[in-house]
Design brief:
Layout: E1 14-19, H1 26-39, E2 44-49, E3 55-58, E4 64-67, E5 78-81, H2 91-98, H3 100-108, E6 114-117, H4 121-127, E7 135-136, H5 143-148, E8 152-153, E9 158-160, E10 164-167, H6 172-185, H7 187-197, E11 205-206
Parallel strand pairs: 1-2, 1-5, 5-6, 6-10, 7-8, 9-11
Antiparallel strand pairs: 3-4, 9-10
Helix pairs in contact: 1-6, 3-4, 6-7
InterPro entries: Class_I_gatase-like, DJ-1/PfpI, INH-QAR
Pfam family, one: DJ-1_PfpI
Protein name: DJ-1/PfpI family protein
Length: about 210
């Protein structure tokens, strides 16, 4: 079975920051972080961050998570924004109205940084002005809004538009994680992750 040791060598670990906020959905971030953990810290370094600095975050089901890493987008290679529901009073809607996270994401954009989103996390990127005219997707209940806000909604469980990688709802985050492993570390490492997770990727990755 191919292992991460066979992955293409990088000068340093790939640095992935997952953005958390009050009301975030657990599965929306658990999927990809589980995948990335298989690669190993010598290849991929994960951090949990918030736009408000180090603090405790309360998830949609009441779980408390301590985010100890500072908001430092210039020290990230990949930033991933998980979803947080979509109805009135959801974490996503609160963050869109509050505005701090969309502003921080807009300011984070730079050459060489890949921005990703799971489920309705794409709507936070949209609120930051980062999906207008770009190929993207989100949870099916939010597709019309994403389209109305200027996103170029296309088919695919995962949509890779270069420095913007988005996916559909909830468990699609696992597929996004495996796709990013394939993109950065090769197909053998992605297959290894699937075998360890006992998970088979679903749908397609739209890279056209």
């Amino acid at each position: 079975m191919p292992s991460p040791s066979a992955a293409p060598r990088r000068p340093r670990p790939l640095r992935v920051h997952t953005v958390l906020y009050d009301g975030v959905e657990e599965q929306d971030f658990a999927g990809h972080i589980e995948v990335f953990g298989i690669v190993g810290e010598e290849h991929l370094a994960q951090s949990f961050v918030t736009a408000d600095g180090t603090r405790r975050v309360t998830t949609s089901s009441g779980m408390e998570i301590v985010c100890r890493a500072a908001w430092s987008p210039r020290s990230a290679d990949v930033i991933i924004v998980p979803g947080g529901g979509y109805g009135e009073g959801s974490g996503i809607q609160r963050e869109i109205r509050r505005g701090a996270l969309p502003r921080a994401l807009a300011a984070a954009r730079r050459d060489g940084l890949v921005l990703g989103a799971v489920c309705t996390g794409t709507l936070l990127l949209s609120a930051a002005g980062l999906t207008a005219g770009r190929r993207c997707t989100t949870h099916h209940t939010a597709l019309d809004d994403l389209r109305a806000q200027g996103g170029r909604v296309v088919g695919g469980r995962v949509v890779d538009d270069g420095d913007l990688v988005t996916c559909g709802g909830v468990t699609s985050g696992i597929d996004l994680g495996i796709w990013l492993i394939e993109r950065f570390f090769g197909a053998d490492t992605a297959l290894f992750a699937e075998e360890v997770l006992e998970y088979q990727r679903r749908g397609i990755v739209n890279t056209a």
